[in-house]
Description:
By secondary structure, the protein is mainly α.
Amino acid sequence: MQFADKKVxxxxxxxxxxxxxxxxxxxxxxxxxxxxxGEEITITPEECQLIFGIKPxxxxxxxxxxxxxxxxxxxxxxxxHVKLKRKYLKPELMKxxxxxxxxxxxxxxxxxxxxxxxxxxxVTSGSLVGWWKFKYCEDIDMMSQxxxxxxxxxxxxxxxxxxxxxxxxxxxxxxxxxxCERTNIVxxxxxxxxxxxxxxxxxxxxESLRNIxxxxxxxxxxxxxxxxxxxxxxxxxxxxxxxxxxCTSNSDDVVEDSVSEDSDHDTTNSDTDGGSPDIGDAHxxxxxxxxxxPVDHNPEIHDLNARGCGSEPNMQTRLAILEATVxxxxxxxx
Length: 334
């Protein structure tokens, strides 16, 4: 496995902070819109799904604090942890890799998803891994049934609406890839790449935004209509147009504004959501992790993407791309 063998070297990891702050400052809290080139546009859950290649699920996700699960992965791997720090995810993952028993193989999948969810999709200002995430990583067959696109988008936008730009939590990389998709400021590096985030070189975006202000982007270069899936994306993602009745929810499965509860200083046995590479760990160590370019100068992902280009990528190719992407973010967070 590329992740275990460390075939993705740190020298291939390129990242950028230029653009994130500019775009966050372009958000009008009164209008609840990003003002780009004079146009008022916003990020939708469906766009998040298209950008990251997430199947549209119908079961909503509750990102509020929860107590430690009494069974499953939390007990098998983290029994002695009252509060789980994200730094303990990788060691447990490495222990599972290479084992051929079914439970270990499945735990590799669970831990990779848990790592990705903690360090990329639901980034917060703490160093803890929220116990709520385990519920949605436990049943592998159910993972695609959850409405990840809505949860990721609402978690991020909730913070955008109330926090200062420097303190915004959630998936900030979503904003950058979304901007690439909704404007003509940069050209795609790989037209046919799937998922869409692999089309874009954020280093190129960074260079472009050094020379133009968000408000000065010509209106003609802004796409005012939300992204639509291609026929290929519809087939690969089993795309459907959600309705009110398709989005099931109950008292346990509702996305709520829980970003404000993020803290490492919780005095209860319930963990706050954590894992931020932005603010630093509980010891005050700087742990800066600006948004990455997951494909810039990475020959491995170029090769993997080429294999999937023009046709539906098989599961092995998808997993390898995921492993390579996670490894890049993990390298920056060490």
